[in-house]
Design brief:
This protein is mainly α. Helices cover 72% and strands 0% of the residues. The protein is elongated, with a radius of gyration of 19 Å.
């Protein structure tokens, strides 16, 4: 069992920082485990022992980068909150860096745990929005319904059919979700 904090956390932080800096400076094609290790001040064997290979390391960095920094903004009602969040989610995930992080998160994830973690991040954000709506007395879809109707189509389109991904698409998904008669309401 790895202790939270301590040396393990410092190694992870320095390696993640090294990866992000090197990606920005030299690009993905120039990235190697020895180069990351040198920048992070660790041995390559430390990286291989902890992450296995470069792809698993990139996957771990991607999952960390896909974690939201803050709670979704409160715009006063469910439709506004969910629409603003969906537009921002689509914008971030469909960007060149967002697509690269999605690709990395999935490529270095043979057991699906990284994909599950990324999904959990989105579900946590939607849960905050839904809970606020319920606290205000609004009828709101459950989190899984919102994931199926908003997040899943966005991710599918990003991965397989990227044409037409814009704020209007995100708004249409939210409108369709909220127009569905009582399905999954809390």
């Amino acid at each position: 069992m790895v202790r939270p904090g301590g040396r393990s956390a410092r190694v992870q932080a320095s390696v993640h920082t090294a990866v992000r800096e090197l990606l920005q400076e030299a690009g993905r094609d120039a990235l190697t485990v020895p180069l990351v290790a040198q920048r992070a001040g660790v041995t390559p064997s430390t990286i291989y022992r902890r992450w296995g290979d470069l792809q698993e390391l990139l996957s771990d960095v991607a999952v960390e980068r896909l974690r939201p920094d803050t709670e979704p903004e409160d715009h006063g009602d469910l439709r506004s909150d969910l629409t603003a969040w969906a537009e921002q989610f689509l914008d971030e995930m469909a960007s060149a860096s967002g697509r690269a992080y999605i690709r990395d998160a999935l490529l270095g994830d043979p057991d699906g745990s990284n994909a599950g973690q990324c999904s959990a991040y989105a579900a946590e954000q939607i849960d905050v929005i839904v809970a606020r709506a319920v606290d205000r007395g609004e009828s709101a879809p459950d989190v899984e319904t919102a994931m199926d109707r908003v997040v899943a189509p966005v991710m599918y389109r990003i991965l397989f059919r990227p044409a037409g991904l814009d704020a209007a698409y995100a708004r249409r998904l939210v409108t369709d979700l909220l127009a569905a008669p009582g399905e999954g309401d809390r």
